[in-house]
Amino acid sequence: MTACRVCGGKIAAPAYEAPAPALTSIMTLLDIPTRVYVCDRCGHAQCDEIPDIETFYDIGYRISLNSEGHDQIFAVKPDGTVIYRTDHQAEIARNLLDLPQAATLLDYGAAKADTLHKIVAARPDIEPYVFDVSTDYASAWNGWIAPNAQATYEVPAAWDGRFDAAMSHFVIEHVADPIGFIRGIHKLLKPRGTLLLSMPDVSANPGDMTVADHINHFSEASLRRALAAGGFEVSVIDTTSFPGAFFAVAVRSETPVKQEQDATLVQQAVERGLEICDFWRASAAYLEKRADTFRGRKVAIYGAGFYGSWIFSRIGNDVELTAFLDQNPNLQNAVHFGHPVIAPTAIAEDAEALFIGLNPLKARAAIGNMPHLHKSGLQLVWLEA
Ligand SMILES: [Zn+2]
């Protein structure tokens, strides 16, 4: 039994449960089981909190921190041009926020604040502020954000009511009290100030359901409810600009916001949540069987991102892994869980199977475009049975 973090409703039993290890968003393994609960009252899905959550984000969570130029790849255009995630995020944010001249903009849970940096580069009139729960990022802020516009661990009381807008990218999925989190930002905005929140959309990226530190999996229904509970009127929920994510824009209300619940939206969210849980249960059981078939034999995993890492967490001890294959040049030549990451064309001649670690909604189309992976003697193993 657990309580829904959005509506407070009781959820009797998990819809998905898997034994340890659990995989985090930064591709580390935690020695905890995975348990996903789906709330049938508001359409929210959630996992147990990870142990010692403060320390994990303070010193354990150094996303994209190692090299200045490192960024996650959002997409590769047909001509080979790479679109980086924070460039794309900054463009969406600029368009959605549509800020007035000389606006004050707070990046809440900023990490290195790359998105804010790129917004300010395009709009030098904007006054940037940052907040995070770690001091790891100060060196990335210094030089372009005034020292008194930087806050760590706690937001100064003087910031209450100061901001024209606040944005928080891919943070709320990590927090144990999402309503308190939204209320905390409400307090910092001016009346009618704008909030931009981005987060994974599990319905479009089902792998998100099993990410250990993504303890909230919002649906449109639960996101609307959470924003209302936090004192915001929703203007836009954009599900298309960043496939696999929600970008929500909401306006600070000065009076309590009525929580209108759309029963159809809730029902859709619940059905989709349960469907994704069923998918992972079936996939885990199927992978176990396939790992048995290839026990001690040479196999490769396609994808060094979340899905490939998840496959590794399930079969890594059973098979002889030759390599992870990945198209991302930033990952090639790296070592992942003790195994090399190589270009897909460099797959070992003697690999007998290739486990496909890609978003199941896109995997077959992506692999279909790679003729060198379709050859005799190489079995392709998909996530779905
Ligand atoms: Zn709920």
CATH class of the largest domain: Alpha Beta
Going by helix content, strand content and strand pairing, the class is: alpha/beta
CATH-defined fold name of the largest domain: Rossmann fold
**Percent of residues in β-strands:** 25-35%
Shape: globular
Question: What report would you give on this structure?
Answer:
With 385 residues, the chain is an alpha/beta fold. The chain folds into two domains: 73-256, 3-Layer(aba) Sandwich (Rossmann fold), CATH 3.40.50.150; 296-381, Rossmann fold. 26% of the residues lie in helices and 26% in strands. It is built from nine helices and 23 strands. Helix 2 packs across helix 3. Zinc ion is lined by residues 4, 6-7, 9, 39, 41-42, 44. GO terms for molecular function: methyltransferase activity.
Give the secondary structure arrangement, pairings included.
Layout: E1 2-3, E2 10-11, E3 16-18, E4 22-23, E5 29-30, E6 34-38, E7 45-47, H1 53-60, E8 73-76, E9 82-84, H2 85-97, E10 104-108, H3 114-122, E11 127-132, H4 138-141, E12 150-152, E13 163-169, H5 178-188, E14 189-200, E15 216-217, H6 220-229, E16 232-238, E17 245-252, H7 263-293, E18 298-302, H8 306-315, E19 320-325, E20 335-336, E21 339-342, E22 353-356, H9 363-368, E23 379-381
Parallel strand pairs: 10-11, 10-13, 11-12, 13-14, 18-19, 18-22, 19-21, 22-23
Antiparallel strand pairs: 1-2, 3-6, 4-5, 6-7, 7-15, 8-9, 14-17, 16-17, 20-21
Helix pairs in contact: 2-3
This protein binds zinc ion (ZN).
Main attributes?
seven-stranded mixed sheet, 9 helices, binds zinc ion, alpha/beta, six-stranded mixed sheet
